[in-house]
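INTERNAL AUDIT FORM
Audit reference: QA-55
Scope: verify that the stored structure record matches its stored sequence.
Auditor: D.O.
Record contents follow.
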Amino acid sequence: MELLSAAPSLVVALALAVIAGCGTQSSAQPPAASPEPAPAHHFDVERIATGLDRPTFVGAAPGDPEALWVLEQAGRVVRIVGEERTLALDLGDRVRTGTEQGLLGLAFDPAFATNRRLFLHWSDPAGDTRVAEFRARADGRSIEPDPVRELLFVDQPEENHNGGQLAFGPDGRLYLGLGDGGGAFDPERRAQDPASLLGKVVAVDVDAEVPRWEVVLTGLRNPWRFSFDPALAEVWVADVGQDRVEEVNRVRLEVDEAPKNLGWSAYEGRQRLVGHEVVGPGELVFPVATYSHDEGCSVTGGFVYGGASLPDLVRRYVYGDFCAGTLWSLSGTPEGGAVDVRREEAKVPQLSHIGEDGDGEVVFASAAGSIYRAVPPAPPQS
């Protein structure tokens, strides 16, 4: 694994680069980290649910701390409390399921406990992106089947690179990650096209009379998962690479500046791709951590841990790889970079999502059909 300690002007990026023209760009490259040590044993994982259909999300809802909410790729929302499962919503007849299509993202309104409002992101029967607002019923266990309103429709030219994550940011807006629309090496250069929402992280004020999506980050290939660190007003974005590099980006949210550009398709990681240009005025940022396809094939982003059960993870960003099941954690630096990348001993097969339970503890979704929880490591056997 390669670790980059970014300078403030190079804080974070996604598999690529940015801005031809007036963007700020430094020629200095952060040094590569030394080879990582043997796997570290800071937590174990225990399987807490099985028999699910390709889960793509697991997490808790505000005001419902005992339950885990799970998305199944084929269109189902499932609520789990111990051994009890409730089918909260079935959108199966409205969802197209493919390798990278399906029910992809869920975000609960921060005031969900009182307004019962939530938002879903899925691929419709034509394969296009839909984001809509829904309401949970008064029992808190199920969701009204018809959306309150649709917030976004995006035509998807290909079946892959649909992005996925929905999340509320520290500014109260709803954020969505969208891939570049598919095709190897972004053939239509959509990620660098300011007129397209593809290859971007976008945000909307869901309480606005006329909600308007705004581009927050540009130059992404397929930001399957991202998360916010509200303590520092930052977003961590894991961008899935093309055929060489997976990357983790750390970006400060600065809404008064032009959208920062993470470089795709002019860069994969820090590697310049011939024939592709960076476009726009935004600052070019580079990844704080990368790994090659010798170690995995598809990064799954996580979050900065703030729970109480795993002291060795406090204020560390946890992430992993879908194909290898490998988990890593790293520490952010005050300058906006990262240090101390650790390959953790625990693994989760077909890792599709890293979320938080009601106590802020780490839970994992596996596309193989299981949900796992991170637990303190078992003491060594004598």
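Auditor finding: record pair retrieved intact. The chain has one domain: 2-375.
Action required: none
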